[in-house]
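dumping this here before i forget
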Amino acid sequence: MTSFDNDIVSGNVVRSVLKLSWPIIITQLMAGIHGIVDHILVGTYVDFRAQAGIGVSWQLFLVIVVFLSSLFHGMNIMIAQYTGRKDHAAINRIAYEVFVASAYLILFLVAPLGYFLSPYLLELVNAEPEVQEHALPYIRILFTASLPMFLMFVLNGALQASGNPKIPLLLGVLTTVVNVVVSIVLITGMGWFPEMGAMGAAIGTCVGPIPSVIAGLWLILRHKVIIGPPKKFTLVPDFGVLRSVVALGLPAGIQSVLLNIGGAVVIGFVGSLQESAQAQAAYTICYALLFSMVTWVGFGIRAACATVMGQNLGAGKNERGKLAVYIGAGLGFVWSAGFGAIYWFFPETLLGIFQIEDAVVLEIGSDLLRYLTFSGMFVAVALAFTGGLQGAGDTLTPMYIAFVTQIVILLGICTVFWSMDRLSTNVIWTAILIGHMTRFALSYFMFARGKWDHIKVEIGERA
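structure:
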């Protein structure tokens, strides 16, 4: 059986953070490459309406299924802390139960409900008929065939939380290669395949993780990684484990739902403006894709901070975990500031990558990128402190922060201006920036207070 990595809880703290963060960050960036390729191909072979359809569908898909992140977040926190305690049996048990529960939820809840609710969801965000034409088949494929994607999330999260981020990186590269190849073939209609446009992008997204899931399970079953198989294979859930996982992860799941509800409602506000298709296309490309070059890195740093914090708390080294989070915040700021300069000085060049020629989309997108120059710095640093809080077992605080910043502030500002018939893209972009600034301020303040220091993370008794 693979031994635990002591470098996460001992030695130079900067090295500990970097050892975890760079593979996780690259994994996040690799995962995003597929989405960028999809948008470039769809923009080339279809048009910006199909790009808007993919962006709207993906945001809605995340709102519905992101609640599963309750399991993922709770699992990651518990595995990190039990890894710090060097308890192999506990982390194997936690990972297996979450893997099985995720499969049940996707197959018997998310897939059927998502398929039938898809048309109504698209109406809620004011998607134009031309956008819905591409969006509906795309989102239905995601809902009904996304099981490999979510099993991949479980495997990657468990391995990263146990201190092994390099295997998820390799699996992420494999997933991305398969994603891109399948998307190129199906979107463009190469060989005997018909040109499928947005549907081809959805199929590529769902098929891509299958080889990686198989490889990850093989590594676990052959004891090649820290995570191992359970002592007993059973399809009956262990509700003792799941109660503990959900108790920790539910606030994090609600936090993710709030963040994505905010994003979906913003798309609805954007869709209510004049030239809504162009505005939604600009929002999708700039916020969901280009801005992801900051947020993907931020998510990687958040995961690294959560793992380092969790393992160090499990090992009884609280101050070391706290210092690691501040180092992660510094890394996030440096990256986001550098990329923000690119947003500010080269907006039209970036938009040109996605074959955007429409003058209105170019104008709206350029304005948004300049707002995101500053938003990125606040978001990246806030994510590091969020990871620190979650790794310590404090998932309630980030949930409250998400509610205040995403619902009260972001949607509140948009609603007030919409009610006065004065809503515009610049108002929406300003509301996004204010929300991100507040998120940073609250996240830093709550982490610095240190109330997380006394939280205990334990597995519940078998039900």
